[in-house]
Amino acid sequence: MDDSQVETWLHELDTEDEDVIESEDDEVEPEPNLQALVRESELQENEEERSSESDELSDSDNVPLSQLAPGRRGSVYKSTNGTIWHKDIPSVTRTRTQNIRLRPPGPKGNAARSAKDPLSCFELFFTQDILEILVRCTNIYLDKIKENFQRNRDAKPTDIVEMRAFLGLLYIMGVSRSGRRNIKDFWDNSQGTGLEIVYATMSINRFRILIRALRFDDITDRETRRKLDKMAPIREVVELVTKNCRNNYVPSDYLTLDEQLVGFRGRCGFIKYIPNKPDKFGIKIFMVVDTKFPYVYNFEIYVGAQPEGPFLKSIKVNDVVHRVLDPLYDLGCNVSMDNYFTNHS
Predict the structure, then answer these.
(1) Looking at the domain assignment, is residue 48 inside a domain?
(2) Which of 39-53, 207-221, 235-249, 295-309 has the lowest average pLDDT?
(3) Can you list the positions of beta strands (E) in 65-221?
(4) Full domain range(s) for residue 324
(5) Mode of pairing for the β-strands spanning 272-273 and 281-290
(6) Domain total of the chain
(7) d(Cα 256, Cα 14) in Å, to the nearest integer?
(8) Where in the sequence does UniProt note compositional bias of the Acidic residues kind (predicted)?
């Protein structure tokens, strides 16, 4: 073995080692970044924590608030003004005497209990004495304006029967939503808009005369009474209707007090403008209404500041509340109202 042969063998071995190393470099994957792995695992852990928290929150939606509120101490809550609210329903105790209702709610009196049709119910509130006032005061005005008519019969005096028919027509027109309809439509049968019960009751000319002449007080001394009372033209009739509302009904346990603006744009000394109401202009009325039945138990018309005299009353909210709720004292009723009526001066 000479030196040249040994050198040839060594050269072959070096060549094989280089081939093996190159092949190993091709097959081995690069070493992963340790920081990237740590960051990825942290993100996975955070996502798992969020999902577990959301699952717990969704599961706790139906859990009562009393179980979610930790550290409940005592059996009551105390508000900032000193009012105490019990957390649990108090045990059954004897009902206080003032809370015992001796009479069930509903119609009051034989006439109210025996009323079975709309006409009988209407007569409970518009009684005979009210109709007599309307007839008497309307005839006084008809006698005053009869000279303006070519025929005296056009302004002939009315009576109880005709007044009842006239009020019935007003009621039917109100049910038919006549506020935006022409009165002629109720008498026009050619186009099918007329109502037989309307044009069979009286002519349209007579209806117009009655609606023009309808009065609720004696016009001969109205100006004298108006100096002491803004509501003089309707005072007597309104008080009778209010009295009938109270006398024909026993209220239930729960009532509500609120105001209502009755739309009206005619001549009136106590028209109110309330921009947030649908009608904006009208007569403001404070009403006590039964919540169990749609019934107005008591009401008071707002007339503003009255002149000095017997009709001068305070228009402060708390005084109005006491006046309209006065008939309910000692009846064991609960009256709900908003914060407008609960401000004490």
Answers:
(1) no
(2) 39-53
(3) 76-78, 84-86, 106-107
(4) 229-341
(5) antiparallel
(6) 2
(7) 107
(8) 14-30, 43-59
